Structures are given as structure tokens and as C-alpha cells.
């Protein structure tokens, strides 16, 4: 049957995405859009860019930003440019081109406003290797060259907390509709979610308006800790959705005078927040899951993918756990994994194979934290699986016992994780040597910034005792 031709009416009615500049003009005119937010995700997953009148955007949809946006640390500093790039080059302009498939409204804006994600290119047309969205595209292309397509489904945990304007004070759960903060842990409690019904109704409305496909919302283990599961799909599309969803829930929370935080470990005595990634690989032509054979049994490719994650996840740990705070989540007495063991429906292991039909056989990477850049997390996790596939690696035996009592197999801190990435030639080849060099320099600079801060623990135990 011939594919139905897309009409201008189809483009105008689309909640999310159009195919061209001409369709974008019609789409924005139909909605009375007056401004557009042009964003590119940086290394931290922060949206950098410009807000401009629609007329200016439509007259020339590209924008210029300096290469330095991909060198900026989370605190706004920059690593030394020595041995990275010439200081003149780092301040030279890149060309940011819009991906019209990401066009959507900004539902919380006061005036009719649209948003669109951009890709970064050098002035000679080369993609910018440092751009996180491009890093993910490169990994997806590696799969495509083998005749494969990756399918992912992220799960993102976050906390709702009282507004906190003084960083010296600990975070606290917010007041719900009952007038009381949540006391104790209410894992999977519907009533605890209902405490913030008005907030979540706004979140769902905002998400629907942007075409973000939320699967489920649940209450996690921590006080006022929630988890959102997104529908499975293309890695780049899902990374875009996580990128937009983080902002969406923050905006919905702010409208109710609450903060939403994706810090990995925001509250000392509560569990950390993860970004679990479910992964499967399908044949590009047939669409069949290569992790299952004709009889429904697991294939050698399935085991090689797991083995690749086991061998190489420690080398990308600075992406999966990108900040000093991230490693506070990864402790033996928490729900977070401390090693790269794997097992069938074993949530204590770093790699879990959920119960499923053969067509849906997948591997859940439970190591990443929710503070990570979704583009880089998905790229890094798929890169590890890819290396396992092309190298024909074999995994350890599946673990049936509690993995938390076993030895640590993951880096314990940021500098150890940075060193592991720097010493992996395989990861450098797959993710790009210039990206690895720049990313690790940024992480080292962030650590140096952290070390300038004296913590309450140091004042408590060292002030008068040493």
C-alpha cells in the first residue's frame, strides 16, 4: 500500500515536530506563536541558546553560538584550554541548525512561545564532535552500519522538595494537599502521589502539549521521590524527551511553589535518584529483536551486549555519574548498584534482565543517576553494548543472589571515573577522542571547584578534634 502523502494540514495539527521550514511557518502561524526558544544541549544537559522573535527565526533559522558552550562546567567555569583547543578557536562561532522534528510549544510561557532543539556544526559543515546530541547520533550510526537499530526506554527518578534559597540548609520534603510533609517512605503509594495531584495534572498537560509520551508515574522509595517512565523508542527521540521532560517537571513544580530536583543524592538519609535505561537491539530490515532467536531463546548477541556493558561501563562512569554528588548514591547500603553483575529480574545488580516476551527481551542498565545528560548516558550505555557485540564478548554467569554484598566494581569517585575513561582506547574510539579529552577536562575542573568548598562534615569533626 502506498504511503499517504503528508499534507500541510497534517503538519499544522501535529503536536510535536514538522518536516521543514515551510511547515514550521504554517504551524506557528496557526498557533499565533510570537517567540521561539532555540536550544542546544551542552555537556551537562543544560539548554543553551537564544530566544528570538518568530519573524527573525523564520527569516534565517540558524543561529550562532561559540564553541565554548561545550566547554562550560556546571558552575559556569571553563577548563584550561591548553592541549584542548586554541583559545581563539574556542570562542569562534558555530552554526546551530534547527531539527524541525523537535518543534513544540512552550506550554507554561505567558506569550505564545515555541521551542526547538538545534544541532551544532562547524562553519565548513562538519558536525561538532563535542555536542552531546551528535555523540549519540554517532553511536546510533555505528549500529546502523551493522544493520541494527537500538531501542531504549528511560526511567527518570526525581525528588519534590521545599523551595531552598540557601545552599547551606538541607533539603526537605514539600507540603502536600493534606498540609503536612511526607514522613517516612511511601514506595508505590498512590495516596502519596495524590498529595501533589494538581502539580502532576499540570505536568501531564504540559507533556501532552509538547508531545512527550509518559508511560507511568509512580512514587519511589524516598520521601516525595517520584519516577516517570517514558515509552520505548528511538534513542535520539527519547533523549530529546528526557531533556525536555526535566525542564517540564521543574516548571510544573515551580508553578506550585515547589522545587523538582534531579540531583543524584539530594537528601542525606533518603535513597538516590537514578535514570535507568532499558535497551534492546532490532534488525533494521525485519524489525526483529536480535536478542531473541526464532525459538524465543536468548541469542549470542544478547549475551555479548551484556558482556560489553560489564566490561566497559566502568570506563564511562563519569558520564553515568557525572558529579561528586553522584557517587553518594552508589553505596553498599542503598538501592543503587555498586557493580556490573547481571541477573534475571535481579534489582540488586547493575544490569537487570526484566521479565518479558522474547520480542521485548532487553537489558536494563541501573547504574546511571538522574543528574546525567540523557544524550550522553544513552550514547555511553549503547557504546558499551556495541563494543561487546563487535568484540564477541561473553558475560559472567547470571547472579541469583544479592549483588550488594559483593565487591565494588565501579569507580568510587569522580576522579577515579575520569581516569578510567582516559585510559580506555575503545571508549575514546567509539565516543570520539576530542569529546573524551574535553569531557574529562571539564570533569576535572568541576572537581577542582568542588574542592574549594569546606563542608559541614569537616567543620563538625575536624574543627576541634585534630
TrEMBL record:
Q: Which keywords does the record carry?
A: Ligase, Magnesium
Cofactor(s) the protein needs: Mg(2+)
- Identify the enzyme class: ligase
Name of the featured protein:
Glutamine synthetase
Instruction: Give the molecular function GO annotations.
Output: glutamine synthetase activity
Task: Give the top-rank taxon of the lineage listed in the UniProt record for this protein.
Answer: Bacteria
Return the similarity comment. Belongs to the glutamine synthetase family.
